[in-house]
Amino acid sequence: MGLRRLGRGSLPGWAVLWVGLALTLGAALIIPAHAPPQYQSTARLLLLLPPDARSTEVNPYLNLPNGLIVLSMLVAQVPDGDAARDAMAAEGLESQFEVGLDPSRPVVTLSVEGTDPDDVVRTRDWLVALLEAELLRVQTEEGAPARHVADTYSILAEPSADRIQGDPLRASAGFVAAGTVLSVLAALAVERRRSSPVPDFTTPETGGFFPAWMFVALFAVLLLVIPTRLVVGPIGAPGAPANLLALGGLLWWTAATLGGQLRRFDLSPLRLGVGLLVGVTLLSYAFGHVQGWYQPADVRPRYGARNWRLADVPEMTEVAVSASDRGLLALAGWVGIALVTAEGIRTWREMHRVLVWLVGAATVAAAIGVVQYFTGFNAATLIDLPGLSASAEFGRGIARSDLVRVVSTSTHPIELGVVMACLLPIALHVGLYSKRLIGWLPTLMVGLATLMTVSRSGIVVAAVALVVLFLGWPNRWRMMALLALPVMGLVGPVALPGLLGTIRSLFTNLGDDPSITGRTDDYDLVFRLIGEHPLFGLGLFTFVPMVYRTIDNQALVLLLEIGVVGTLAFFALVLVGVGQGISVHRRGRDDQERHAGLAVTASLAGVVTSYITFDALGFRQVAGLTFLFLGLAGALWGLTRQVERTHHG
């Protein structure tokens, strides 16, 4: 049924595997070598007045505030008109182009892309001539004196076009890796279909000096207690302690699986979902290196020094290649912690320990945030471990309506708000089944920290998670929760003056919030870019905010980076986790086991909700918790099935 059965020589399984590997080898050799090349050429036009522009007569446009910028805006609209496009077609110019404007400078930027390098350069030069002619026309029609007629100065117009291409060796390696993963999955699926449908749910003893549950608990502590900005300096962003531990977890899981120590699920739903996501992401990586990356003229950050720069193809390639490698490292860590958690936790007692440690780590981070809210001091800045260095300044709170938005160990208040909110159901679970009153302290601290981030995303995540929890509770618990709401509504404004009112305003003033309008303004641009590579995108993490812009919607970022197929694979994996959690809630032996399944399901539903409110996978704690919850759901499901097999055996 699994790797061992496949290794014993089942003909259908081996046939599927070898056909898949043959197709993989063919794709790795043919696609990178025969993909049609793409080229890009750019130009920037700076509007300038003549050096002797001194007289009593004045260009009418210069009477306007930022008159040269207004001129650049008028001129930049012309290439997108029907007349200009018809003229281009008449000239036989077929390359695509984009026109970008600098918001604070009289600069028009052109970028042209196509498969014919000569056509790309000719299109660029034709567009430059069109813009120059239009600039002269609009000023002449308004009677601008000769001494005040603005002209253009062309910069960054290279005589030849740059080829848009990634690394062919990485492309081939990506195809080989993707094909191998998908071929093995297909072979295992065939073997499972042919074999007995009753799998072996037993887990051999893997305790030893450092059992898997301790590994998962340590990951939770490193993820939530160690500030996210602290990394192993020479490694950079992938060198966060939790990331490194998770990568080690993937190596451990691989060795344990190949060594026969993890036979519980040869092709469990989680393994299948993870395998599909990994395979598709590797395909995305390969296609990214085949097709290469470029920066369109109209896609740039809104703020900062780069909002007026356009990365050329060599610079863009260097940035994207590095980002694509980071994406695979991040995915490897996420997959590692999910699989170790799902298949390494052997008993309900170990599961309870993991949940307690997870909530304990969250309580520490929450307590740091609560102290920061009242004092303005972030104790996370005192955490200094040998070998770690800060990748950026961290720990400073952000003000909103005279309130301090706490950060604690997270990168941003939004991240902390989402982290605390999605952990609230598990904190409630620990409190409900604690035999001591102090067991409710984590719920109190996590709930307060969620509010103190003053984060719209955090409140939305908390609402979704708590609604899922509420729907699964017995009627008596529901009534108690409903009775507690008015009490919290009366105590909250007294204990935390101004906080609840500020949070309420986040939702009552949505139409006037620039963060909301900024998100919606990106939609047309994002869907245009998605349409260029709809199936597999150009690689995880390759839509670099520093070069392009920040898209505060992780679902859209997934469509950009791993395409429709990859996005479907990701959310299919999430549905697997939710389904497993619901199954545990329905089939657990007792109330505590059933509630554990409900709590993990609520946490997973909550954190995934944040994927439509901000770029969640760009924040280590949110990304790590997403896959930790998937692993917990898989472990709970496995423990429940193990009990069922023992009971019916």
The chain-level structural class is: alpha+beta
How many domains?
A: 2
Helix content: 55-70%
Mean pLDDT value: 87
Describe the structure.
Helix 7 (212-225) packs across helix 10. It contains 21 helices and nine strands. The protein folds into two domains: 38-164, EIF_2_alpha (Alpha-Beta Plaits), CATH 3.30.70; 210-299 and 309-647, no CATH class. 61% of the residues lie in helices and 7% in strands. Strands 1, 2, 3, 4 and 5 form a five-stranded antiparallel β-sheet that branches. The two termini are 20 Å apart. With 649 residues, the chain is α+β, with helices and mostly antiparallel strands. A hairpin with a 5-residue loop joins strand 2 and strand 3 (107-114). The chain crosses the membrane at residues 12-31, 171-190, 210-232, 244-262, 274-294, 354-375, 414-433, 445-473, 479-500, 525-548, 554-576, 596-614, 620-639.
